[in-house]
């Protein structure tokens, strides 16, 4: 037996060696390859730090090693296709593509790790709804951040396959978990009102504008 978290951590630990191995195998020491290494490498290191300082209790779930490799590690390994497609094809990116990638990655890192920290430390002090901070306008800022991070990687590959992999994770895992979370939170008083002013994934910014206009009048 192992845990879901252990399998995820192994995937993160392997990111830097895998990317460096691809760079060596294909002789690609370009700016594009090093930028990808820096982005995915720092994301993985931050993940390992997060799991050490404020772990997600869901990932403590026990699972047989064989099943874990099949349903956890193998799907995660699909993300290795992105650096493979980038590096093996020696992709050259225009400056504006770097700008888009870095914008999405930085915003994604902020939403992902800050919201996970807020959730962990808030729930440690009190149970119930979290309606402030990054959860003020979206009920799942952590998933939003993770999607933006992997979207930035997919863009770097300049290939359609990483977008399919990301889409499979979004609709096969993220959406399912978000809907399950809504069902669980529905038992708390005030959830209906909270749900009405927040987005499932994207912040409900139009609600903010509407309320601001109402207060101004």
Outline of the structure:
With 217 residues, this protein is an all-alpha fold.
How would you describe the overall organization of this protein?
The protein has 217 residues and is mainly α. Helix content is 73%, strand content 2%. It is built from nine helices and two strands. It has a single domain, classed as Four Helix Bundle (Hemerythrin (Met), subunit A), CATH 1.20.120. The N and C termini lie far apart (61 Å). The protein is globular and about 60 Å long.
Give the topology.
Elements: E1 2-3, H1 4-26, H2 31-53, E2 62-63, H3 65-77, H4 81-88, H5 95-125, H6 141-157, H7 161-185, H8 191-196, H9 205-216
Antiparallel strand pairs: 1-2
Helix pairs in contact: 1-2, 1-3, 1-4, 2-5, 4-6, 5-6, 6-7
Major β-sheet profile: 2 strands, antiparallel
Low-confidence stretches: none
Shape: globular
Structural class: mainly alpha
Q: State the CATH topology.
A: Four Helix Bundle (Hemerythrin (Met), subunit A)
C-alpha-based Rg, rounded: 19 Å
Total number of beta strands: 2
Neighbour order of strands in the largest sheet:
1-2
Which percent range describes the beta-strand content? Answer: under 5%
In the CATH scheme, the class would be Mainly Alpha
SSE string, helices as H and strands as E: EHHEHHHHHHH
Oligomer: single chain
CATH architecture assignment name: Up-down Bundle
């Amino acid at each position: 037996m192992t845990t879901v978290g252990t399998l995820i951590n192994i995937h993160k630990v392997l990111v830097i060696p895998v990317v460096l191995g691809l760079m060596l195998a294909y002789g690609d020491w370009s700016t594009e390859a090093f930028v990808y290494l820096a982005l995915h490498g720092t994301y993985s290191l931050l993940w390992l730090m997060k799991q050490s300082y404020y772990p997600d209790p869901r990932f403590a779930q026990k699972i047989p090693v064989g099943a874990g490799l099949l349903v956890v590690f193998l799907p995660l390994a699909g993300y290795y296709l992105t650096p493979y497609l980038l590096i093996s094809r020696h992709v050259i990116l225009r400056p504006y593509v770097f700008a888009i990638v870095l914008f999405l990655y930085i915003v994604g890192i902020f939403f992902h790790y800050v919201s996970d920290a807020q959730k962990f430390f808030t729930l440690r002090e009190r149970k119930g709804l979290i309606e402030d901070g990054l959860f003020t306008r979206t009920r799942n800022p952590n998933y939003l951040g993770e999607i933006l991070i992997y979207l930035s990687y997919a863009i770097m590959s300049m290939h359609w396959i990483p977008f399919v992999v990301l889409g499979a994770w979004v609709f096969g895992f993220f959406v399912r978990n978000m809907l399950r979370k809504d069902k669980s939170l529905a038992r708390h008083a005030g959830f209906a009102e909270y749900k009405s002013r927040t987005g499932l994934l994207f912040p409900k910014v139009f609600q903010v504008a509407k309320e601001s206009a109402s207060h101004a009048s």
